[in-house]
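Q: Predict the bound structure with adenosine monophosphate.
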Amino acid sequence: MTQISALCIYCGASQNVDPRHLEKAGELGRVTAEKSIDLVYGGGHSGMMGAAADGALSAGGRVIGIIPEHLRAREAAHTGVTEMVVVDSMHVRKQMMFERADAFCILPGGLGTLDETFEIITWKQLGLHDKPVILLNLFGFWEPLLEMVQRQIDGGYLHEDPAYLFSLADDIEGVFTAIASAAAAKVKPDSSRL
Ligand code: AMP
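A: Predicted complex:
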């Protein structure tokens, strides 16, 4: 099985969400730590982001938060992570999250999560990287997005095989199975153009 060393997660910062989602975010963090994989994320303390970080920390894992200076107070930066990198801008944050991880997992989230999701998927579509991207479809949360992608295929707007661009997982263990299969099917990236 292909082993990665760092997993980046994209997910919501809002605390006022389905508690089952928060529980699963914590589980993802724990399992990531148990597999000795570092967790890279946006550095916040609340919502799905905080739950995943706390899950990993509770299992003795290494957690790397990357947060822009202007969001430190607004997003309540986590004070207990292994490493907190404070950067100047959202762009640097996203670039660093990309560079510090070998694979990406998308959990339920809001507009910020969608921005990060489409950036990492479209960079892959443009051949800029070939890292595994896993959409964790917790309790069917991402079904409307999958319907939209199907509509784009049907309408002739999307030519790349979506199964190459991202994999689907329904549960936590499925995330790691999907990462292993995606990593095994790698093609040549050209990240020098990022
Ligand atoms: P949300 O999914 O809206 O709760 O946001 C999740 C994370 O995405 C938060 O840490 C936000 O700072 C971040 N975020 C929000 N907007 C953007 C954006 N335009 N680009 C990148 N990250 C963003």
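A: The chain has a mean pLDDT of 93.
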